[in-house]
Design goal:
Elements: H1 4-9, H2 13-44, H3 49-52, H4 66-75, H5 93-125, H6 134-156, H7 164-170, H8 175-182, H9 185-198, H10 202-216, H11 218-223
Helix pairs in contact: 2-5, 2-6, 5-6, 5-7, 6-10
Length: about 220
């Protein structure tokens, strides 16, 4: 999927506007749901740290991170301020942390599925074929929203601190190896940012995102 700047360079101005609006939707709706999902699962498993700090809310101002938000608009991937989690409150700390970490990406995949469902429904019933029509623009909005959500899920599942995948990794790695790995958290994240800016990660992330888009499109495709 082309970036916003790529769409503008290609003269696809309507698509560029729709892409910006869909990313706004992700930033102000989907990222808060992502973090809320972390806190909600943690609370279910016995850790009420996020609840006590007012993070079990849909209010985007409680969750958004400036750098992560900018990344959404530049790269289609980014992050919010992580909800505070105390694994010592879980009966099984490693498993509880892994389930809590997975909750965020799973919420993005579900939101992606819902967006794809609406996209297919609009394509069928609202005259999507008419180029430049309202139906076409709305369908494109939901497609972009689905793709950004899926890309967020894929990106956050990378086993790189402080992303969710690193917390899932903690459930399978011995404690000594995991703590050793976490000592390099700053350097690893800096390397990831450099790889994003240089486009090195574009192809693998796009491949995984396209595969996930194909998967979540199976049911809507059968229905519509």
């Amino acid at each position: 999927m082309l970036s916003i700047l790529g769409l503008i360079r290609n003269g696809e101005y309507l698509q560029a506007v729709v892409s910006v609006l869909s990313r706004c939707f992700v930033v102000f709706c989907c990222l808060p749901i992502h973090e809320l999902a972390h806190g909600w699962v943690a609370n279910l498993l016995g850790d009420n740290t996020a609840k006590n700090q007012g993070r079990l809310t849909f209010n985007p101002l409680a969750h958004l991170n400036p750098i992560g938000t900018i990344m959404i608009f530049l790269f289609g991937i980014g992050y919010a301020n992580p909800v505070p989690i105390n694994p010592n409150n879980f009966k099984k700390p490693k498993q509880g942390m892994a389930l809590t970490a997975l909750a965020g990406p799973v919420s993005n995949v579900l939101l992606g599925f819902i967006s794809v469902f609406f996209c297919y429904a609009i394509q069928k019933f609202a005259g999507y074929q008419a180029e430049g029509s309202i139906g076409s623009a709305v369908a494109a909005f939901f497609y972009f929203a689905a793709y950004v959500n899926v890309t967020l899920a894929v990106f956050n599942l990378l086993p790189i601190p402080p992303l969710d995948g690193s917390k899932v990794l903690a459930a399978v790695l011995p404690d000594k190896a995991y703590y050793k790995y976490m000592q390099y958290e700053r350097y690893v994240m800096l390397a990831v940012l450099i790889l994003l800016f240089t486009g090195v990660l574009d192809r693998p992330i796009s491949f995984l995102s396209n595969a996930m888009m194909t998967l979540i499109s199976i049911i809507p495709n059968l229905i519509f």
